[in-house]
Design a protein that fits this description.
binds iron/sulfur cluster; 6-stranded parallel β-sheet; Transcription Regulator spoIIAA; 3-stranded parallel β-sheet; single chain; binds FE3-S4 cluster; 378 residues; binds S-adenosyl-L-homocysteine
């Protein structure tokens, strides 16, 4: 049996896409291996979110070049967000790569791979497809907790972000397919699902007659599911209706990941986030009044173009005010073909780094001073 090794970079959506790739390749007779050295095919499912994510992929490709010298029949493929955005540039920088397939082409992976093998040539497939691979049976390594994609893409166009170009416009999956998939998972013994999307709170805006609150209620009715999680929520779509639905969901985890990115209204506007500091704080207040134990986590970017000391101080003060249970903190990374990359007043690397250390220290302090929160994080 031929074997494939898949290495995943990036977010949970990519982890799940890798599960779909594994499912598709098993259908055409491949085995999945955890050991790169025994693989006939090595696939990297890549991420472009920050410069560092791309560097990791190129460094992995560097070491794979050696493996390929030892084993010339090894097939090397690059898929995912970076493949979608970089396309042929990956062939130019890493000539040992045999195939490039974008996020829109995952369902065609078996065909693309067979073409590479049969025709003994390099293939690149990054065109946008009309149909997504939603109904493909994923091959999941975990047997009790499952990721379920409820939507793909994002229409938000935050000015720093590559996701809209790496994954295209928002496409919500019809609810019937999602419910059926979860019911099947329950039958297989799964007890926990995480509903995935770049902006799950906007679920259904491209469909008719359903929104995210409705979907949550429907998933909550599925017998056998013990815990429902969902990522990522966006403050822009945290309507009162959605907030009021949360406490009614008997099976939902008491956790909300709600990226704020910045505490400064000037910066939030430049980021095109679609809400301001006061609105964000109001959402938190409403949620905490309904679900006092809700563990709220966030993402923060420091050093966005134009971020003055005053703006940065606003982020620190927002963190102190909300006291997040945990936070993913990043220094702004300029990405090609994004509006923020072209903004004047880019912040020097040393200042970005200094601010990053400062938010990390502050968050550490906040968690340390609150043993209740600490327990939830651990
Ligand atoms: N869809 C999610 C975010 C996905 S990316 C949302 O809207 O919340 C995960 C996180 O990476 C973002 O929340 C942001 O904090 C960070 N990020 C995205 N682009 C970035 C960039 N260019 N530089 C630094 N951090 C970035
Ligand atoms: Fe990127 Fe913004 Fe969409 Fe999140 S909401 S994926 S940060 S464009
Ligand atoms: Fe990275 Fe793509 Fe996810 S850019 S963060 S893998 S959507």
């Amino acid at each position: 049996m031929k074997k494939v090794y898949i290495r995943t970079f990036g977010c949970q959506m990519n982890v799940h896409d890798s599960e779909i790739m594994a499912g598709l390749l098993r259908e055409i007779g491949y085995g999945i291996t955890e050991d790169m050295n025994e693989a006939d095919v090595v696939l990297l499912n890549t991420c472009s979110i920050r410069q560092k994510a791309e560097e990791k992929v190129y460094s992995q490709l560097g070491s794979l070049k050696k493996l390929k010298k030892e084993r010339p029949n090894l097939i090397l493929g690059v898929g995912g967000c970076m493949a979608q955005r970089e396309g042929g540039e990956i062939f130019r920088r890493s000539p040992s790569v045999d195939l490039i397939f974008g996020t829109h082409q995952i369902c065609n992976l078996p065909t693309i791979l067979n073409k590479v093998i049969r025709e003994r040539r390099k293939v690149m497939a990054i065109e946008e497809e009309k149909i997504d691979q939603e109904e493909v049976k994923a091959y999941r390594a975990d047997k009790t907790k499952a990721y379920v994609a409820i939507m793909r893409g994002c229409n938000n166009h935050c000015t720093y972000c590559v996701v809209p170009s790496a994954r295209g416009r928002q496409r919500s999956r019809p609810p019937e397919g999602i419910i059926k998939e979860i019911e099947n998972l329950v039958e297989e013994g799964y007890r926990e699902v995480t509903l995935l999307g770049q902006k799950v709170t906007a679920y259904g805006k491209d469909l008719r007659g359903i929104d995210f609150a409705d979907l949550l209620e429907r998933v909550n009715e599925i017998e056998g599911i013990e815990k429902i999680r969902f990522i990522t929520s966006h403050p822009r779509d945290m309507s009162d209706r959605l907030i009021k639905t949360l406490p009614r969901l008997s099976r939902a985890a008491e956790h909300l990941h709600l990226p704020v990115q910045s505490g400064s209204n000037r910066i939030l506007k430049a980021m095109n986030r679609g809400y301001n500091r006061e609105e964000y704080l109001k959402i938190i207040e409403k949620i905490r009044s309904l679900i006092p134990k809700m563990s709220i986590t966030t993402d923060i970017i420091v050093g966005f173009p134009g971020e003055r000391e005053k703006d940065f101080a606003d982020t620190l003060s927002l963190m102190k005010e909300v006291r997040f249970a945990s936070a993913y903190m990043f220094k702004y990374s300029p990405r090609s073909d994004t509006p923020a990359e072209r903004m004047l007043d880019q912040i020097p690397e040393e200042i970005r780094l200094k601010r990053l250390h400062e938010v990390i220290d502050l968050q550490r302090e906040i968690i340390k001073n609150n043993s209740h929160l600490r327990k939830e994080v651990e």
